[in-house]
TrEMBL record:
InterPro entries (alphabetical): Beta-trefoil_DNA-bd_dom, BTD_sf, CLS_fam, Ig-like_fold, Ig_E-set, p53-like_TF_DNA-bd_sf, RBP-J/Cbf11/Cbf12_DNA-bd, RBP-J/Cbf11_DNA-bd_sf
Transmembrane stretches, start-end: none
Localization per Swiss-Prot or TrEMBL: Nucleus
Species in which this protein is naturally found: Diceros bicornis minor (South-central black rhinoceros)
GO molecular function, one term: RNA polymerase II cis-regulatory region sequence-specific DNA binding
Gene3D superfamilies: 2.80.10.50, Immunoglobulins (2.60.40.10), LAG1, DNA binding domain (2.60.40.1450)
Pfam families associated with the record: BTD (PF09270), LAG1-DNAbind (PF09271), TIG_SUH (PF20144)
RBP-J/Cbf11/Cbf12 DNA binding domain ranges (all copies): 4-104
Protein name, entry field: Recombining binding protein suppressor of hairless-like protein
Family, as annotated: Belongs to the Su(H) family.
Organism taxonomic ancestry: Eukaryota, Metazoa, Chordata, Craniata, Vertebrata
Keywords: DNA-binding, Nucleus, Transcription, Transcription regulation
Length: 419
Protein backbone atom coordinates (compact mmCIF):
# COMPACT_ATOMS: atom_id res chain seq x y z
CA UNK A 1 0.00 0.00 0.00
CA UNK A 2 1.42 3.34 -1.00
CA UNK A 3 2.16 5.86 1.76
CA UNK A 4 -0.64 8.28 2.51
CA UNK A 5 -0.22 11.83 1.23
CA UNK A 6 -1.47 13.94 4.06
CA UNK A 7 -0.57 17.04 6.02
CA UNK A 8 -0.20 15.66 9.55
CA UNK A 9 3.09 17.13 10.87
CA UNK A 10 3.08 19.31 13.95
CA UNK A 11 5.57 22.08 14.57
CA UNK A 12 8.76 21.02 16.33
CA UNK A 13 8.16 17.28 15.92
CA UNK A 14 10.45 14.94 14.02
CA UNK A 15 10.32 11.29 13.06
CA UNK A 16 7.37 9.20 11.84
CA UNK A 17 3.99 10.88 12.16
CA UNK A 18 1.89 7.70 12.11
CA UNK A 19 1.89 4.16 13.38
CA UNK A 20 -0.17 1.40 11.86
CA UNK A 21 -1.63 -2.05 12.32
CA UNK A 22 -2.16 -4.38 9.37
CA UNK A 23 -4.22 -7.55 9.26
CA UNK A 24 -6.59 -9.56 7.10
CA UNK A 25 -10.29 -8.88 6.76
CA UNK A 26 -12.40 -11.33 8.69
CA UNK A 27 -9.56 -12.08 11.10
CA UNK A 28 -10.26 -12.07 14.81
CA UNK A 29 -7.83 -9.23 15.43
CA UNK A 30 -5.51 -11.19 17.71
CA UNK A 31 -1.84 -10.28 17.96
CA UNK A 32 -0.93 -13.27 15.78
CA UNK A 33 -3.15 -12.03 12.95
CA UNK A 34 -2.49 -8.28 13.22
CA UNK A 35 1.00 -6.88 12.82
CA UNK A 36 2.20 -3.51 14.03
CA UNK A 37 3.96 -1.44 11.39
CA UNK A 38 6.93 0.73 12.29
CA UNK A 39 7.22 3.55 9.78
CA UNK A 40 10.54 4.98 8.64
CA UNK A 41 11.01 8.27 6.83
CA UNK A 42 12.39 7.89 3.31
CA UNK A 43 14.74 10.26 1.43
CA UNK A 44 11.73 11.55 -0.55
CA UNK A 45 10.00 12.51 2.77
CA UNK A 46 7.54 9.63 2.50
CA UNK A 47 7.08 7.19 5.34
CA UNK A 48 7.42 3.47 4.71
CA UNK A 49 6.34 0.45 6.72
CA UNK A 50 5.94 -3.20 5.77
CA UNK A 51 4.34 -6.35 7.17
CA UNK A 52 6.43 -9.45 6.51
CA UNK A 53 4.74 -12.07 8.66
CA UNK A 54 1.10 -11.93 7.56
CA UNK A 55 -0.19 -15.23 6.23
CA UNK A 56 -3.33 -17.30 5.67
CA UNK A 57 -3.41 -20.57 7.58
CA UNK A 58 -4.13 -23.94 5.97
CA UNK A 59 -7.43 -24.02 7.85
CA UNK A 60 -8.62 -20.83 6.11
CA UNK A 61 -10.37 -21.93 2.91
CA UNK A 62 -10.99 -18.46 1.49
CA UNK A 63 -10.08 -17.89 -2.15
CA UNK A 64 -9.84 -14.11 -1.77
CA UNK A 65 -9.12 -11.68 1.06
CA UNK A 66 -8.40 -8.00 1.70
CA UNK A 67 -5.67 -6.33 3.72
CA UNK A 68 -6.88 -3.94 6.41
CA UNK A 69 -4.62 -1.10 7.53
CA UNK A 70 -5.45 1.00 10.59
CA UNK A 71 -3.42 4.21 10.91
CA UNK A 72 -3.10 6.28 14.07
CA UNK A 73 -1.47 9.71 14.24
CA UNK A 74 1.21 10.57 16.74
CA UNK A 75 -0.79 11.67 19.77
CA UNK A 76 -3.41 8.95 19.46
CA UNK A 77 -5.95 10.37 16.99
CA UNK A 78 -7.16 7.76 14.54
CA UNK A 79 -6.47 8.64 10.92
CA UNK A 80 -8.66 5.90 9.48
CA UNK A 81 -8.99 2.29 8.38
CA UNK A 82 -7.97 1.55 4.81
CA UNK A 83 -8.76 -1.55 2.75
CA UNK A 84 -6.90 -3.10 -0.16
CA UNK A 85 -8.63 -4.54 -3.20
CA UNK A 86 -9.43 -8.24 -3.33
CA UNK A 87 -6.31 -10.43 -3.33
CA UNK A 88 -6.45 -13.94 -4.76
CA UNK A 89 -5.00 -16.71 -2.60
CA UNK A 90 -2.32 -18.67 -4.48
CA UNK A 91 -0.94 -21.42 -2.28
CA UNK A 92 1.79 -22.59 -4.67
CA UNK A 93 2.76 -22.24 -8.32
CA UNK A 94 0.82 -24.35 -10.78
CA UNK A 95 2.77 -27.35 -12.06
CA UNK A 96 0.40 -27.87 -14.98
CA UNK A 97 1.12 -26.59 -18.46
CA UNK A 98 -0.89 -23.40 -18.78
CA UNK A 99 -3.46 -22.81 -21.51
CA UNK A 100 -5.91 -20.04 -22.33
CA UNK A 101 -8.84 -22.34 -21.48
CA UNK A 102 -8.24 -21.51 -17.81
CA UNK A 103 -6.97 -17.95 -17.46
CA UNK A 104 -7.32 -17.58 -13.67
CA UNK A 105 -3.57 -17.64 -13.13
CA UNK A 106 -2.50 -16.19 -16.50
CA UNK A 107 -1.02 -12.70 -16.74
CA UNK A 108 -2.34 -10.30 -19.37
CA UNK A 109 -0.55 -7.43 -21.05
CA UNK A 110 -1.00 -4.26 -19.02
CA UNK A 111 -1.17 -6.13 -15.70
CA UNK A 112 0.80 -5.03 -12.65
CA UNK A 113 3.41 -7.52 -11.49
CA UNK A 114 6.23 -7.77 -8.98
CA UNK A 115 9.48 -9.68 -9.46
CA UNK A 116 11.63 -11.18 -6.73
CA UNK A 117 14.74 -13.32 -6.57
CA UNK A 118 15.39 -15.88 -3.83
CA UNK A 119 18.86 -17.44 -3.76
CA UNK A 120 18.82 -21.17 -2.98
CA UNK A 121 15.15 -20.84 -1.96
CA UNK A 122 16.13 -19.06 1.26
CA UNK A 123 13.54 -16.54 2.45
CA UNK A 124 16.17 -14.35 4.12
CA UNK A 125 17.89 -13.85 0.76
CA UNK A 126 14.79 -12.50 -1.01
CA UNK A 127 15.37 -9.38 -3.08
CA UNK A 128 12.77 -7.46 -5.04
CA UNK A 129 13.19 -5.61 -8.33
CA UNK A 130 12.63 -1.97 -7.41
CA UNK A 131 13.49 1.60 -8.43
CA UNK A 132 15.48 4.01 -6.27
CA UNK A 133 16.95 7.38 -7.28
CA UNK A 134 15.98 6.81 -10.90
CA UNK A 135 17.75 3.44 -11.23
CA UNK A 136 16.69 -0.21 -11.03
CA UNK A 137 17.92 -1.95 -7.89
CA UNK A 138 17.49 -5.24 -6.03
CA UNK A 139 15.96 -4.22 -2.70
CA UNK A 140 15.79 -6.44 0.36
CA UNK A 141 13.08 -4.24 1.95
CA UNK A 142 10.73 -2.76 -0.63
CA UNK A 143 9.02 -4.25 -3.65
CA UNK A 144 7.79 -2.23 -6.60
CA UNK A 145 4.85 -2.73 -8.94
CA UNK A 146 5.61 -2.83 -12.67
CA UNK A 147 3.23 -2.75 -15.60
CA UNK A 148 4.05 -5.68 -17.88
CA UNK A 149 3.42 -4.78 -21.53
CA UNK A 150 3.56 -6.99 -24.59
CA UNK A 151 5.69 -5.10 -27.12
CA UNK A 152 5.14 -5.20 -30.89
CA UNK A 153 8.12 -7.06 -32.33
CA UNK A 154 7.52 -5.79 -35.87
CA UNK A 155 7.95 -2.10 -35.09
CA UNK A 156 11.05 -0.12 -35.97
CA UNK A 157 14.06 -0.06 -33.66
CA UNK A 158 13.40 2.01 -30.56
CA UNK A 159 9.60 2.04 -31.04
CA UNK A 160 7.78 -0.61 -29.00
CA UNK A 161 4.08 0.28 -28.61
CA UNK A 162 2.22 -2.02 -26.19
CA UNK A 163 -0.38 -4.49 -27.44
CA UNK A 164 -3.15 -6.54 -25.83
CA UNK A 165 -3.36 -10.24 -25.03
CA UNK A 166 -2.04 -12.75 -22.53
CA UNK A 167 1.72 -12.84 -22.09
CA UNK A 168 3.43 -16.01 -23.34
CA UNK A 169 6.97 -17.19 -22.88
CA UNK A 170 9.11 -16.15 -25.81
CA UNK A 171 7.26 -12.82 -26.11
CA UNK A 172 8.95 -9.43 -26.24
CA UNK A 173 7.85 -7.51 -23.12
CA UNK A 174 8.61 -4.25 -21.37
CA UNK A 175 8.51 -3.47 -17.64
CA UNK A 176 7.38 0.02 -16.60
CA UNK A 177 7.57 1.19 -12.97
CA UNK A 178 4.07 2.31 -11.95
CA UNK A 179 5.38 5.06 -9.65
CA UNK A 180 8.28 6.62 -11.56
CA UNK A 181 7.46 5.60 -15.15
CA UNK A 182 11.04 4.39 -15.61
CA UNK A 183 11.30 1.45 -18.02
CA UNK A 184 13.69 -1.36 -18.74
CA UNK A 185 14.61 -2.05 -22.39
CA UNK A 186 12.33 -4.54 -24.21
CA UNK A 187 13.28 -8.09 -23.23
CA UNK A 188 12.22 -11.63 -24.14
CA UNK A 189 10.61 -13.45 -21.23
CA UNK A 190 11.73 -17.08 -20.85
CA UNK A 191 10.48 -19.93 -18.70
CA UNK A 192 13.01 -21.28 -16.18
CA UNK A 193 13.35 -24.92 -15.17
CA UNK A 194 16.27 -26.37 -13.20
CA UNK A 195 18.21 -23.12 -13.59
CA UNK A 196 17.93 -23.22 -17.38
CA UNK A 197 16.09 -20.82 -19.68
CA UNK A 198 13.79 -22.80 -21.99
CA UNK A 199 14.10 -21.18 -25.41
CA UNK A 200 11.35 -23.14 -27.20
CA UNK A 201 8.46 -22.75 -24.70
CA UNK A 202 5.55 -20.49 -25.71
CA UNK A 203 2.86 -21.34 -23.14
CA UNK A 204 1.11 -18.55 -21.16
CA UNK A 205 2.92 -17.18 -18.11
CA UNK A 206 1.44 -18.18 -14.76
CA UNK A 207 1.53 -16.69 -11.26
CA UNK A 208 4.56 -17.61 -9.14
CA UNK A 209 6.39 -19.13 -12.09
CA UNK A 210 10.14 -18.73 -12.33
CA UNK A 211 11.18 -16.76 -15.38
CA UNK A 212 14.15 -14.98 -16.92
CA UNK A 213 14.42 -11.84 -19.04
CA UNK A 214 16.69 -12.03 -22.08
CA UNK A 215 17.95 -8.93 -23.85
CA UNK A 216 17.40 -9.23 -27.64
CA UNK A 217 20.36 -9.61 -29.96
CA UNK A 218 23.66 -11.25 -29.27
CA UNK A 219 25.80 -13.58 -31.37
CA UNK A 220 24.17 -16.71 -32.87
CA UNK A 221 24.79 -19.82 -30.82
CA UNK A 222 25.49 -17.84 -27.66
CA UNK A 223 23.53 -18.28 -24.48
CA UNK A 224 22.19 -14.72 -24.51
CA UNK A 225 22.34 -11.88 -22.00
CA UNK A 226 19.86 -11.86 -19.10
CA UNK A 227 18.60 -9.48 -16.40
CA UNK A 228 20.47 -10.31 -13.21
CA UNK A 229 21.11 -8.97 -9.72
CA UNK A 230 24.45 -8.54 -8.00
CA UNK A 231 23.80 -7.78 -4.32
CA UNK A 232 21.77 -4.56 -4.60
CA UNK A 233 22.60 -3.77 -8.23
CA UNK A 234 20.76 -4.91 -11.36
CA UNK A 235 23.22 -6.03 -14.04
CA UNK A 236 23.43 -8.20 -17.16
CA UNK A 237 24.46 -11.85 -17.03
CA UNK A 238 25.97 -13.69 -19.98
CA UNK A 239 24.38 -17.14 -20.07
CA UNK A 240 26.11 -20.19 -21.52
CA UNK A 241 24.55 -22.46 -24.14
CA UNK A 242 23.59 -25.87 -22.79
CA UNK A 243 26.04 -28.41 -24.24
CA UNK A 244 23.45 -31.20 -24.34
CA UNK A 245 20.31 -29.30 -25.43
CA UNK A 246 20.39 -26.47 -27.97
CA UNK A 247 17.02 -25.11 -26.82
CA UNK A 248 18.30 -24.27 -23.33
CA UNK A 249 20.63 -21.69 -21.81
CA UNK A 250 22.42 -22.12 -18.48
CA UNK A 251 21.65 -19.40 -15.92
CA UNK A 252 22.87 -18.52 -12.45
CA UNK A 253 20.58 -18.17 -9.41
CA UNK A 254 20.59 -14.38 -9.65
CA UNK A 255 19.08 -14.43 -13.15
CA UNK A 256 15.98 -16.41 -12.11
CA UNK A 257 13.00 -14.29 -11.06
CA UNK A 258 9.63 -15.24 -9.61
CA UNK A 259 6.70 -13.31 -11.09
CA UNK A 260 3.51 -12.49 -9.19
CA UNK A 261 0.56 -10.26 -9.95
CA UNK A 262 0.23 -7.23 -7.67
CA UNK A 263 -2.12 -4.35 -7.03
CA UNK A 264 -1.54 -1.03 -5.32
CA UNK A 265 -4.10 1.28 -3.76
CA UNK A 266 -3.38 4.96 -3.25
CA UNK A 267 -5.48 7.25 -1.07
CA UNK A 268 -4.96 11.02 -1.36
CA UNK A 269 -6.33 13.60 1.06
CA UNK A 270 -5.32 16.84 2.74
CA UNK A 271 -6.21 17.96 6.25
CA UNK A 272 -4.30 21.25 6.07
CA UNK A 273 -7.44 23.41 5.83
CA UNK A 274 -9.82 21.13 7.69
CA UNK A 275 -10.73 21.38 11.37
CA UNK A 276 -11.87 17.81 11.79
CA UNK A 277 -11.35 15.15 14.40
CA UNK A 278 -13.12 12.47 12.38
CA UNK A 279 -11.22 9.73 10.50
CA UNK A 280 -10.52 10.48 6.85
CA UNK A 281 -11.92 7.11 5.80
CA UNK A 282 -13.75 5.88 3.85
CA UNK A 283 -11.85 7.78 1.15
CA UNK A 284 -14.07 8.45 -1.91
CA UNK A 285 -12.53 7.19 -5.15
CA UNK A 286 -13.55 8.38 -8.63
CA UNK A 287 -13.33 5.79 -11.43
CA UNK A 288 -15.03 7.46 -14.43
CA UNK A 289 -16.75 10.70 -15.47
CA UNK A 290 -19.83 10.99 -17.70
CA UNK A 291 -20.83 14.32 -19.24
CA UNK A 292 -24.44 15.05 -20.24
CA UNK A 293 -26.10 18.06 -21.85
CA UNK A 294 -24.43 21.22 -23.05
CA UNK A 295 -25.10 24.85 -23.75
CA UNK A 296 -26.31 26.69 -20.67
CA UNK A 297 -26.75 23.52 -18.58
CA UNK A 298 -24.39 20.56 -18.50
CA UNK A 299 -24.14 17.91 -15.81
CA UNK A 300 -21.28 15.63 -14.89
CA UNK A 301 -21.86 12.25 -13.28
CA UNK A 302 -19.05 10.83 -11.17
CA UNK A 303 -18.86 7.05 -10.87
CA UNK A 304 -16.77 5.48 -8.14
CA UNK A 305 -17.07 4.23 -4.57
CA UNK A 306 -17.47 5.44 -0.99
CA UNK A 307 -19.61 8.44 -1.98
CA UNK A 308 -21.98 9.98 0.58
CA UNK A 309 -24.31 12.96 0.92
CA UNK A 310 -21.69 15.06 2.70
CA UNK A 311 -19.46 15.38 -0.38
CA UNK A 312 -19.33 18.31 -2.80
CA UNK A 313 -17.70 18.32 -6.24
CA UNK A 314 -15.23 21.12 -6.93
CA UNK A 315 -13.93 22.32 -10.31
CA UNK A 316 -10.63 23.95 -9.44
CA UNK A 317 -11.53 26.41 -6.66
CA UNK A 318 -15.23 26.57 -7.64
CA UNK A 319 -17.83 24.52 -5.77
CA UNK A 320 -20.44 22.84 -7.99
CA UNK A 321 -24.05 22.13 -7.10
CA UNK A 322 -23.88 18.45 -6.15
CA UNK A 323 -26.57 15.78 -5.87
CA UNK A 324 -25.98 12.45 -4.13
CA UNK A 325 -27.44 9.43 -5.93
CA UNK A 326 -25.80 6.39 -4.35
CA UNK A 327 -22.51 5.27 -2.78
CA UNK A 328 -21.28 4.83 -6.36
CA UNK A 329 -22.74 7.90 -8.07
CA UNK A 330 -22.65 11.69 -7.66
CA UNK A 331 -24.12 14.20 -10.14
CA UNK A 332 -23.13 17.85 -10.32
CA UNK A 333 -23.92 20.90 -12.44
CA UNK A 334 -20.88 22.04 -14.42
CA UNK A 335 -20.04 25.62 -13.33
CA UNK A 336 -20.20 28.37 -15.94
CA UNK A 337 -16.80 28.84 -17.50
CA UNK A 338 -17.06 32.58 -16.84
CA UNK A 339 -16.26 31.86 -13.19
CA UNK A 340 -12.70 31.06 -14.29
CA UNK A 341 -12.16 34.33 -16.20
CA UNK A 342 -14.38 36.85 -17.99
CA UNK A 343 -12.16 36.93 -21.10
CA UNK A 344 -12.31 33.19 -21.64
CA UNK A 345 -14.91 33.54 -24.41
CA UNK A 346 -12.42 35.33 -26.65
CA UNK A 347 -9.44 33.08 -25.97
CA UNK A 348 -8.37 30.40 -28.42
CA UNK A 349 -7.19 27.89 -25.82
CA UNK A 350 -9.20 25.37 -23.78
CA UNK A 351 -9.34 25.75 -19.99
CA UNK A 352 -8.61 22.66 -17.86
CA UNK A 353 -9.43 22.52 -14.15
CA UNK A 354 -8.94 19.66 -11.66
CA UNK A 355 -11.95 17.77 -10.34
CA UNK A 356 -11.89 17.06 -6.61
CA UNK A 357 -14.19 16.21 -3.71
CA UNK A 358 -14.55 18.12 -0.43
CA UNK A 359 -16.21 16.74 2.69
CA UNK A 360 -18.61 18.89 4.71
CA UNK A 361 -15.96 19.47 7.40
CA UNK A 362 -13.45 20.78 4.84
CA UNK A 363 -11.43 17.61 4.25
CA UNK A 364 -10.07 17.73 0.70
CA UNK A 365 -9.86 14.65 -1.57
CA UNK A 366 -7.99 15.32 -4.84
CA UNK A 367 -8.42 13.03 -7.83
CA UNK A 368 -6.56 12.16 -11.01
CA UNK A 369 -9.37 13.62 -13.13
CA UNK A 370 -9.75 17.03 -14.73
CA UNK A 371 -12.42 18.81 -16.78
CA UNK A 372 -11.72 20.77 -19.96
CA UNK A 373 -13.84 23.65 -21.22
CA UNK A 374 -13.53 23.96 -25.01
CA UNK A 375 -14.27 27.43 -26.42
CA UNK A 376 -16.70 28.20 -29.22
CA UNK A 377 -14.55 30.43 -31.36
CA UNK A 378 -16.01 33.79 -32.23
CA UNK A 379 -14.47 37.18 -32.82
CA UNK A 380 -14.40 39.75 -30.02
CA UNK A 381 -16.99 42.45 -30.86
CA UNK A 382 -15.32 45.47 -32.46
CA UNK A 383 -16.35 49.13 -32.51
CA UNK A 384 -19.33 50.17 -34.65
CA UNK A 385 -18.45 50.31 -38.33
CA UNK A 386 -15.43 48.02 -38.01
CA UNK A 387 -14.96 45.59 -40.92
CA UNK A 388 -16.07 41.98 -40.52
CA UNK A 389 -13.32 39.38 -39.96
CA UNK A 390 -12.01 37.67 -43.06
CA UNK A 391 -13.60 34.43 -44.20
CA UNK A 392 -10.31 32.55 -44.00
CA UNK A 393 -10.06 33.44 -40.30
CA UNK A 394 -13.42 31.73 -39.72
CA UNK A 395 -12.16 28.71 -41.65
CA UNK A 396 -9.04 28.54 -39.48
CA UNK A 397 -11.17 28.74 -36.35
CA UNK A 398 -13.43 25.94 -37.63
CA UNK A 399 -10.40 23.75 -38.36
CA UNK A 400 -8.99 24.36 -34.88
CA UNK A 401 -12.35 23.60 -33.28
CA UNK A 402 -12.60 20.39 -35.29
CA UNK A 403 -9.15 19.27 -34.10
CA UNK A 404 -10.10 19.92 -30.47
CA UNK A 405 -13.36 18.03 -30.98
CA UNK A 406 -11.35 15.08 -32.31
CA UNK A 407 -9.14 15.09 -29.21
CA UNK A 408 -12.21 15.27 -26.98
CA UNK A 409 -13.93 12.30 -28.60
CA UNK A 410 -10.68 10.33 -28.58
CA UNK A 411 -10.63 10.73 -24.81
CA UNK A 412 -14.23 9.46 -24.58
CA UNK A 413 -15.69 12.85 -23.65
CA UNK A 414 -18.43 14.76 -25.42
CA UNK A 415 -17.61 18.20 -26.72
CA UNK A 416 -19.06 20.86 -24.46
CA UNK A 417 -19.38 24.32 -26.08
CA UNK A 418 -20.17 27.20 -23.78
CA UNK A 419 -22.52 29.71 -25.41
Amino acid sequence: MDPMRATVHQAGETGPTVCGYMGLDGASGSAAETQKLNFEEQPDSREFGCAKTLYISDADKRKHFRLVLRLVLRGGRELGTFHSRLIKVISKPSQKKQSLKNTDLCISSGSKVSLFNRLRSQTVSTRYLSVEDGAFVASARQWAAFTLHLADEHCSQGDFPPREGYVRYGSLVQLVCTVTGITLPPMIIRKVAKQCALLDVDEPISQLHKCAFQFPGGPPGGGGTYLCLATEKVVQFQASPCPKEANRALLNDSSCWTIIGTESVEFSFSTSLACTREPVTPVPLISTLELSGGGDVATLELHGENFHAGLKVWFGNVEAETMYRSPRSLVCVVPDVATFGSDWRWLRTPVTVPVSLVRADGLFYPSAFSFTYTPEYSARPGPPGAPEPAADADADADALLESIHHEFTRANFHLFIQT
